Amino acid sequence: MGAYRSNIDAIRALVRDSEVHRDVYIDPEVFDLEMEHLFPNSWIYIGHASQISKPGDFITANIGRQPVFAVRHSDGNVHVLFNRCPHKGVKIASEACGNTGKFFRCPYHAWSFKTDGSLLAIPLKKGYESTGFDGSQASRGLTPVKHVKIYRDFIFAKLNDGGLSFEDYFGESLSTIDNMVDRSPEGKLAIQAAPIRYMHTCNWKMLVENQTDTCHPMVAHESSAGTAVKVWTREKGDSTETPMAVQLYAPFMSPYEFYEKSGIRIWPNGHGHTGVSNSIHSDYSQIPGYLDKMIAAYGEKRAKEILDETRHNTIYFPNIMVKGPVQIVRNFIPIAVDKTLVESWVFRLVGAPDMLYERALMYNRFINAPTSIVGHDDLEMYERAQEGLRSNGNQWVNLQRLYEGGEKLDVTEVINGTSERQMRNQFHAWVKFMTQDMSERAEVAE
Amino acid sequence: MNEKVIADFIYEEARQLDAMQWNAWLGMFHPEARYWVPLEWQQQDPVLQPSLMYEDLLLLKVRVERLSGERTFSQKPKSRCHHLLQAPHIVECNAETGVFKARTSFFYTETRGDTLERYSGWASHELVAVDGELKIKLKRIDLINFDAPFGNIQLFM
Description:
The structure holds two protein chains of two kinds.
Chain A: H1 8-12, E1 19-21, H2 23-26, H3 28-41, E2 44-48, E3 57-63, E4 66-72, E5 78-82, E6 97-99, E7 103-105, E8 112-114, E9 119-121, E10 147-151, E11 154-158, H4 166-170, H5 175-182, E12 189-191, E13 196-200, H6 204-210, H7 217-220, H8 222-235, H9 244-249, H10 256-262, E14 264-266, E15 272-274, H11 290-298, H12 300-308, E16 314-316, E17 320-323, E18 328-336, E19 339-349, H13 354-367, H14 373-388, E20 396-398, E21 413-415, H15 421-435
Antiparallel strand pairs in A: 1-20, 2-11, 3-4, 3-6, 4-5, 7-8, 8-9, 10-11, 12-19, 13-19, 14-15, 14-21, 15-16, 16-17, 17-18, 18-19
Chain B: H1 3-18, H2 22-26, E1 29-38, E2 51-55, H3 57-67, E3 79-85, E4 89-94, E5 99-112, E6 115-130, E7 133-143
Parallel strand pairs in B: 1-7
Antiparallel strand pairs in B: 1-2, 3-5, 4-5, 5-6, 6-7
């Protein structure tokens, strides 16, 4: 046994006020415990209701290591079920998405289930007569995930019974999802295509932290965004309009002062966002016809209020990032202690001009793809950190920028945009949801 | 213009990439060219459907310039690549309309440091003749596993 299992004090000792021990990124046992505790105790994003709009539509996902799927039942309700046949454990839904028709049929022994998970039929059923089968867990069909919340079409689930309700867990942070949805003149988002997928050989938390790390873009992305600005300046000639592509790259080179002033907002339970007063998304060209549609839908005052909110990256703890002004959700899916699958989804604003979708798709392939030069810059840093952290010379990662002694925990505050406080906020939440269902006494599991 | 000239042009392009002669490679593109790596099977639309890459000459220049940048840390050490091409299938060779199209099955290898990754797919070239010289109007890369989660792909297929 390693140092951390059944040792709540050792887990707590990994996180100090302004630094964290490297084992949170590189220790396989800590990763196992995250899968067993942190993820089941947290509200995890499963997918978007527009992906399963018709009865029988399903999408698969994992919560920690546990496979689940969400399915639209014939009555229109969405069910989230554990993805294993109650008979021998075979996964019922094997693809990322699909339509099963009126029922699921296990490919191994043809047990079938309604789209609410209940058992429909078993071949040669008489073989179970007088066996007490009716009292078995198998007779109840596919096991449902009990705690499911669909918030404005975003499907979240929590495996464990304890802990916070959806509303208490996310609180005011839901305002970022609200803003993204409100940007549709019809108040509706739609997923129309597969995500860009990108494998990272690093711990998932490095990606999460990087979303609110405002002191890296002008350094790490000088090679990509900086070169884009340089080449455009040289090649633009008499052009008066900056191409959409350059508009997307250039703000990454904004100076420290820009990020300092734009601010960070933190919320309880590890959520937070960059770009409070403005952001790298604030100065894009207007999309023709969009403002008119928004004004027609919401009235001038409300439409401007919605569009003036240009939050940069919002972390929904533990592992998704929502980018409202560009309609992207990034899902940082932990695979192993040093392996993370990133799926970056683009949403269409229903009722908005095509060009908004075009811009969001362009942003996604510029920044979040395995072929993205900005992505290359970032992954290089994560990989180097994953290797560098093996060094025993210093076993702590420093998160001290703009740290003030006695910082309040689990509060809502707006702070200097170059602060690392959101990272500290995340690690406070990490300890909380990691240990929430752990026993206090180390010897219990001996 | 004949089928051999088209095939030789495609071999020459791969040779420039393998030799890391990036600027010579860019010189083979038409000013209005696009380099496209779709994200869907038999994808039709590069603009309103997601792609891995859909870039014009300006963006390709940014990539090439970045590769030699002093602060391009993901190129320390540098990547190298190798194209293994099947004989191009000439889809169209029409000197009157000036339309030349070929589809080439390939095996692409990219290496950096101790890692080496291989990719398989088809490259589709749409070429035009400018003053008797072929230029790439569209280069499209269809990977067999376009939907798989890759790590960094830093050079050009």
